[in-house]
Amino acid sequence: MTHFGYKTVPKDQKQQKVASVFSSVAPSYDIMNDVMSLGIHRSWKDQLISRLGPTLETRLIDVAGGTGDIGLRFLKAGGGNVTILDINPDMLEIGRQKASELCIDGIILYKFLENRLSFLEGNAQDLKGVTDNSFDAYTIAFGIRNCTDIDLVLKEAYRVLKPGGRLLVLEFSKVSNPLVKSIYDWYSFSVIPKMGEKIAKDKDSYQYLVESIRKFPEQEVFAQMIQEAGFKSITFENLTLGVAAIHSGFKL
In angstroms, what CA-CA distances link 199 with 13, 35, 203, 207, 223? Predict the structure, then answer.
């Protein structure tokens, strides 16, 4: 058994339930991220890319990255090559559409990026077809908490990274300040599902998403999980008082 938000479900059912959530919310996913976070998620993702510091030599796999928010930021920041992997084809389709419209200084860039950008349908827990030691960096933003077995995800991340490669995980985390936590909890459970009902026409999916945040391990526990997967030099950085955090580790 495992958790699906606050519900307990058989492990072999969670993946399909999560898939249903993201197929439902895919068309409004980016809009809801802006509305729910008041646009702050953009700053968090920019910080993730800043911590990575991509160059033209950097080869990145962005897992659970379907809509392309991280992968396209990586390319715009000067990154070399990115594979955007997601288990959900509906999310990947949103990413492809965004890539086709990627524009800098009035120039649509997709035709210039085709050999540096690829989309791949796959499972973070079993990266079939992805060879060992093949990427310089692995990112996963707001996706790992939806996976059935986080330990397997981290082990696969370790496998596909080159020696010296870096893992970066951006995920919602634990707010420690009691006052901020009370406001955050009220907003999460009283406001966000109603936003989901109004904007995405799906209250239940957003109820699950806010519950899944509370089931994710707190910062220190997740850092220990990263260490147990084999990573070294592990750090984490709280964002917005711990609403989110960036965890980092290296394959040394």
Answer: 27, 9, 9, 14, 35
Supply the CATH number for residue 78's domain. 3.40.50.150
Q: Is 250 helix (H, G, I), strand (E, B) or coil?
A: strand
At 107 the pLDDT is 57
Any domain includes 100? yes
Mark 50-67 as b/e (b = at least 16 C-beta within 10 Å).
eebebeeebbbbbbbbbb
pLDDT of residue 119: 93
**Structural domain total, the chain:** 1
- Give the span between the Cα atoms of 42 and 23, in whole angstroms: 22
Range of the domain at 62: 2-173+217-250
